[in-house]
Amino acid sequence: MRRSRAVRRRPSAAAIAAACLLALTACADAARPTEEWFPETTGESAAGAGDGKPGAGQGGRTPRALPGGAGGDDGATQGGRAAAPGAYHRWGLDRPLAPPPEPPAARPVRPEPSGLPAVVDRVPTRDKVVFVTIDDGVNKDPALIDMAADLRLPFSMFLADSAVGGGTGEDYGYFAELQRLGNSVHGHTLTHPDLTSLPYAAQRRQICRQQERVADRFGVRPTLFRPPYGEYDAATLRAAASCGVRAVPLWRAEMKAGGLEYREGDRLRPGDIVLAHFRGPGQQGGRTMTDVLAELVREIQRQGYTVARLEDYM
Length: 314
Ligand SMILES: [Zn+2]
Hints:
By secondary structure, the chain is an alpha/beta fold. It has one domain (2-33, 91-312): Glycoside hydrolase/deacetylase (TIM Barrel, Alpha-Beta Barrel). The protein has eight helices and eleven strands. The chain has helices at residues 2-8, 13-29, 142-151, 161-165, 173-180, 200-218, 234-242, 289-302; strands at residues 77-78, 81-82, 118-120, 129-136, 156-159, 184-187, 247-249, 253-256, 259-262, 273-277, 306-307. Strands 4, 5, 6, 8, 9, 10 and 11 form a seven-stranded mixed beta sheet that branches. It has a two-stranded antiparallel sheet with strand order 1-2. A two-stranded parallel sheet has the order 3-7. Helix 6 (200-218) packs parallel to helix 7 (234-242). The longest helix is centred in the middle third of the chain and has 19 residues, at 200-218. The two termini are 34 Å apart. Residues 36-37, 135-136, 160, 188, 192, 228 line the site of zinc ion. The site of zinc ion has 8 residues, from strand 4.
């Protein structure tokens, strides 16, 4: 077995460190044959509007002064930005996103009694809500900032340092803009490896350094973490717990070029976590981020759901 071989091979701390470095390099370079990770090479410029200052506290509860859009053509503001009346028309929607129900008094997803983070792909709730998560951080379409403000669409971002900065890790301003609109930011490792190929120490470095980087850049310590490709093992959970991760959200449905794909069944169910990616037109059939998200919102509405804030539930 791959993992037990790795364990037997551990002769010394120095050797482990060397192995980690090699593994990280290999993982960063290896183009894993998955649709989850598409480095952006189309040269789309970042919005660069943000300066990395922290936005509203993402760990807190949803401020109830931030209603959703139903009947919400009232010019109310979110994150200091006015929502223009009827702005949802601009994004091809025939109605605004319905306001989510009041968040539960106690978050239904809690760490395991052992202290390890809970791993969930669907939040236990009867509310007709789903959760939108967007991963990696390669594409930085400025139009998404307008859309997020117009639709008051809450989503959670899981950023990999290598994806955000193309290796420099210094391009977080765009995501700070999205955070100011009330969207939360969490970690997705430094270089997006398959964590199950790494020993504990390397996993901990990948997970915890990125959680720290997010905390530094956004001013709020992330409590959620998503492993690349959804791949994790026992060491992943121990490593994540060691740096404050309370929950590991996976997903039940994924937004792809052809539309929403379900891990089982053919429709959304209450509490489903939906995965999308910061991708450019080159990676999704010529469609922009806002094209894809508008299609996702329309499908969520068509099935009678609205979008709630993941951090209110875990
Ligand atoms: Zn990813």
